Amino acid sequence: MKTLRVALDGPAGAGKSTVAKLVAKSLGLTYVDTGAMYRAITWKALQEQINPADEAALTAISSRVQIDFKLTSEGQDVFLDGVDITEEIRARDVTANVSAVSAVPGVRASLVKLQQEIANKMGVVMDGRDIGTVVLPDADVKIWLTASVEERARRRYEEMTAKGHQLDFEQLKRDIERRDELDSGREHSPMKRADDAVIVDTSGLGIEAVVEKILHICRSAEAQNF
Ligand code: CDP
Ligand code: CDP
Predict the structure, then answer these.
(1) Measured from the CA of 182, which atom of ligand 1 is nearest?
(2) pTM of the predicted protein model
(3) ipTM of this predicted complex?
């Protein structure tokens, strides 16, 4: 099971990172959150006051910085050049700018290379938008995780308000729809379901039920492939 490579893609708030973490733990694989990498570059660009339209500067940042992950009991911590930015990359300004930064071809080239290097070294559950199509086109398991936008917004709303953030539900829903539009409409490796991905619609499904479904798919793939 250690070398299984699982690609988990889907829109914002579908439950990818929550489910990917649990599946990875259960199968003894490494969880890789590729969204956190795009968020880390976005955070750095905001720190350096780089315009999200300045492709050359963004490309330079992504080839220069070192991104590392450290697994913890709650998930994973993200470090950029040795600095822990786990909390910072979830900030609103990072979320608002990440789609623009991640549309830059030079940024994608650096991060896709890093993601492929990790998956060459170990078995992974990798979550993102283009894992099954671009990063790991020959992954052993490809899942497209989705849910209605209403439900995805509700989940994010509950998650954020539980952490003490105050937000407007309708605005949050519009932000999610806008980000999905930008991510699926961009020219380079857009968010897209791979033709051979299994669709798992999580609307009305709890986390445990989704994890069980995906574990079942992984175990079937393992039985066939290994
Ligand atoms: O967790 P959430 O759905 O809010 O997003 P995320 O997985 O942290 O990803 C943040 C953003 O990074 C996405 O909206 C995409 O713009 C970008 N992304 C990407 O372009 N390709 C990936 N493989 C993963 C994320
Ligand atoms: O990574 P992605 O943006 O796809 O979603 P997430 O951050 O894993 O999940 C967003 C929120 O939905 C979290 O608070 C999860 O606990 C919750 N969730 C849920 O309520 N039911 C599911 N089946 C999956 C996730």
Answers:
(1) 16
(2) 0.95
(3) 0.96
